[in-house]
Amino acid sequence: MKLLLCPHCQDVRKLQSRKTKCKCKKVWGKYLPDGVHAQVGGDRPVVLGLNNNDLVPAVKRFLGGKYLIGNTVQAWVIEKASDRVEHLETPPPTSPDP
Ligand SMILES: [Zn+2]
Fold first, then answer.
1. Would you say the pTM of this structure is higher than 0.90?
2. What tens digit of pLDDT does each residue of 28-42 get?
3. Strand boundaries in the chain, DSSP class E
4. Structural domain boundaries in the chain
5. Which residues sit with Cβ closer than 5 angstroms to ligand 1, an ion?
6. Which CA distances in Å does 54 have to 26, 27, 40, 78, 84?
7. Residue 52 and residue 54: Cα distance in Å, rounded?
8. What residue ranges of the chain have pLDDT lower than 70?
């Protein structure tokens, strides 16, 4: 799973097939139709990867009342050179709210 992190407002949004923007609207992103590759834009968007192989069982354990310290989920910053995320040098789709 890919998450969009805004370095300005620290908002984190799940990327989806439709374009999503952070709270301050300075960064945006979306999944491409293949559901694997993504495009992001705006002012220095940061894309986080979340390890689904960690997340799904950890959520199931939590929902089953079996939360334990150690239900860790690996996350990482996806490097700008990744072939799975295209960083478009475009302004945000709308200007930030005053
Ligand atoms: Zn923001």
1. no
2. 999 999 999 999 999
3. 2-5, 12-14, 20-21, 27-31, 38-42, 46-50, 75-77, 85-88
4. 2-50+76-88
5. 6, 8-9, 11, 22, 24, 26
6. 30, 27, 25, 17, 20
7. 5
8. 67, 91-98
